[in-house]
Amino acid sequence: MAASSAAWAVQPDEIMADPVKEARARALSQELRCMVCQNQSIDDSEAPLARDLRLLVRERLAAGDSDSQVIDFLVARYGQFVLLKPRLERQTLLLWLLPPLALFGGGIALWLHSRRRAGLAAEATASLSPDEEARLAALMSDEASGEQSAQPLR
Fold it and tell me: What is the pLDDT of residues 123-132, one digit of tens each?
């Protein structure tokens, strides 16, 4: 049942007689983007363009093209966008490098933020200077003597 639910977009008249070529066609179809749906492979899409692309893949395989020749043909015709997983090339370098760089930059930002917070906490708990300690002691002694003389009557 699970295998048949994944194959619902491929029509019976599209299926090749040779099971090996059909398996290759299905594998290629799962790597190609439906230009209409954009987030589905042509294997999963019911759009008319996806059907045309599935048929084109099967025609190329029946003509004897290798998997890479079929992919190269479709990329030449539709551009890199037809691939669900774009190739690592100069034009797609930013696409591949931006997520890890963003993750690395976020990690650096969190590390710097935690260091800054730790520094602020250390400054807040810093010891008093000798002058401040003497002044604090004087204030506390004045307060303690004032409390003793102002005790409530019972």
Answer: 666 677 888 8
Contact 60, 69 (CB under 8 A): yes
Residue 55 tokens read as 């048929």
Q: Which residues of 28-42 are buried (b: 16+ CB within 10 A; e: fewer)?
A: bbebbbbbeeeebbb
Q: Which two tokens stand for residue 27?
A: 């594998």
DSSP for residue 137: H
Distance CA 10, CA 26 (A): 9
User: Across the strands, what pairs with 33?
Assistant: 41
State pLDDT tens for residues 111-121. 999 888 887 77
pTM: 0.57
